[in-house]
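Memo to structure team: turn this sequence into structure tokens by end of day. - J.P.
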Amino acid sequence: MKQWWYCLLVVLCALPLGAAEMSLNMTQGVTDISGQVYNLHMTILYICCAIGLVVFGIMIYSMIYHRKSKGAVAANFHESTKVEIAWTVIPFIILIAMAIPATKTLIAMEDPSNADLTIKITGSQWKWHYSYFDKNIEFYSTLSTPREQIDGDQTKGDNYLLEVDKPLVLPINRKVRFLMTSDDVIHSWWVPAFAVKKDANPGFINEAWTRIDKPGIYRGQCAELCGKDHGFMPIVVNALSEADFDNWLIEQKQLAETEAAAAAASMSQTLSLEDLNKQGEQVYLARCAACHQPNGAGLPGVFPSLIGSPIIKGAVEDHLDIVINGKPGTAMQAFAKQLSAQEIAAVITYERNAWGNNSGDAVQAADVGHFTSNGAATPQPTVAAQVTETATADVNHGTETVTDAANQAVEADKKVVAPEDLPTLTMEQLMAEGEQVYAATCAACHQATGAGIPGAFPSLIGSPVVTGPVSGHIEMVMHGKPGTAMQAFSGQLSPQQMAAVITYERNAWGNNSGDAVQAADVARQGQ
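Reply from structure team:
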């Protein structure tokens, strides 16, 4: 009997000692905070194991050596003050011993001050949007696991449902501050290796931070039940050395320039219906199929079917509007910042011709660009193009006529981009457009009511910037405010959009300045 007791004692003592090496145990992570969390976890584990060893040891000993068959007689006592004090004081001391290191760790986890880099993380069904403050870099990160693996038609890869098209890139040895919010429902950004798990709530900003110790690929997931594709919302972080991260920033700027040039070139391209459908199918499966299903049938009562849909069968302008601007109050997101003009044109073409819709419509990138600029889907020739066409028609009238027309074309293009020739909108038009821009771009920080978040984002109600000179307001929106979370929007919004949102801020929520800022005002200040 004694030999059995000693064996049990050895096993119970060995369990906590070997816990650190168990595959089911918490991982140590790659940050100082994750190390603190791991050490705290192991400390509490050892304390719990010690308590369990003592309690169960006494219970087992008592059952074996004080059983009735051995003639044991139960003691008869009642209300022992010493015992009651002991079982109150001892657990209290144990809790205090655990609370001290736990409190220190929690305080360290909640201190995002003095960050070297700030990144805004926005969750939406079902993707992550990353925006690097003061870097003019932002992108969406979506699941890249092939649909064939999800449907069971292919063997699942090593990183099944934990791979994305664009990972979040971070530097090591630098403190990175995260600002987390959501476009729709509650999400949760969780990367175990960083010991970061923070909810992303619509209308609120949560903060977290990390400092990564070594380069590598680190994976996580949305840890909040956020809808039908909750399990298809992975997080991938690529941690680079400081030098490699700085090079990556340069590459992203070059890539942005290349993409801008490609987008500009696409405006003059006319693709065949076959090419548009081919590209559109790829975009649809990557971006739209999660809601509307690969066969376009949607989910009754949740996501509408696209087969014979009034939007699909109706005017192209309405289809462009809902894809570009989304539909407020529904799960239909705005894809203006998520997709290029060519991708939007392709996916709209695909939707209008797939699943038996067969409209025959071939939407081009130029249609998207024209709609975005003017609110109409039919591309109109520029003044310069009209003059050039006239010159071509009159070529038989002599070289002088052609030369004059070409000169007129150049002058016409100059007038198109000059501030004085930008459109002048009414207050009502500015407020309507400004509200849309504000809701899409500003409300995550300053709230839909303009009230901001005390201590994090200032209120715009009666704000000195909003009620002060218009030039100061334009300056703030265009160039941001260094050292704060206020981004520069000159590279993100057009002069018309900036004018509209400034007008909206200066007249909404009781500000009522009466100022109607025009695109020309913004353009002049930006010169």
